[in-house]
Specification:
Strand order of the largest sheet: 2-3-1-4-5
Strand content: 25-35%
Number of strands: 11
Number of domains: 2
Largest sheet: 5 strands, antiparallel
Distance between the termini: 43 Å
Radius of gyration: 26 Å
Shape: elongated
Helix content: 25-40%
Length: 325
Amino acid sequence: MQIQKGVSMKNANMLELHYYFGDNSHEIDAYLRNRCEAELLGIILEAAAILEIDASLIKEAYREGGFRDFWKALGNNAAQITLILLIIQIIISTAPLFDAENKELEKEEKRLSIEEKKLNIKKLKLEVEKGEQTNESIASAATSLGANLIILKRKSNFFSFLGEYHKIEKVGFAVLNSDWQPVTDERYVPRSDFGKYILSTNKLKSEEDDGAVIEIISPVLKEGRYKWKGVYNETPISFEMQDAHFRDSVLLDNIPFQHGSKIVCVLITHRELDEVGAIKITGYSVTTVLDKIDDGTPQETPQGKKYRYAKKFAESQTNLFDSDK
């Protein structure tokens, strides 16, 4: 982040979004503009909430030169307003560090540890209170916030919408002071780089619970792609029974279920991002039933015994290799 020479950062309170066109026009599709604005505002609100900065935005009159939108940030703390605008400028103009082949969301989300993210943000907050924030601390906080899934998804939406509007050659982001002077160099993203910001999938890595206890409400007692129903962590769920051995035993051997019957199992929770970046659960599946419990008495299944043996063996091998280091 390069500060403009001779320009004070005091009262930096405006964010500019500059659409650069390939022709000489100064018009923009209203629907596209509103969609992009919604995503940018979503990013600002999420970052402000994480940083616990109280700020509101009002719209300033747009200007020509391609097409330039301005938002003025209002708040009681001028230093915090400047801070949030500088961070947003970095976040929106910096491409996520996705895996080159599959753009796994977790690789961006987990690139920094949760504790490291918290420390970066906490350090910046302390510096702001003392009026001692540095370019390095602002950049570190922007990196931490930029890995937030809501911000990643919102940014993906933003550049996806821009990519559909072919007259846009690039977009620029600048932070201005109350005299309409830029306090940092404008940061550009050319059309050729839009794809670097766009998620190729909304799917997240599935979560596995290899000790899940599910109270069975409704087992499936007939063939077909029907889902079982149960209660997991006090929440009613429907799930696919993918343990073929247990499923066949229920159908062929008439394994009884009574009020309060439970299974201990390996439960897979399938997840993805919704349109605004919130994590939603798309389904559950049981891959292995380890025990069936009736009247508080567990009965281990053959596949459960095999699973536990294999897990114990794998853990012993890991411990063996660790001890050799």
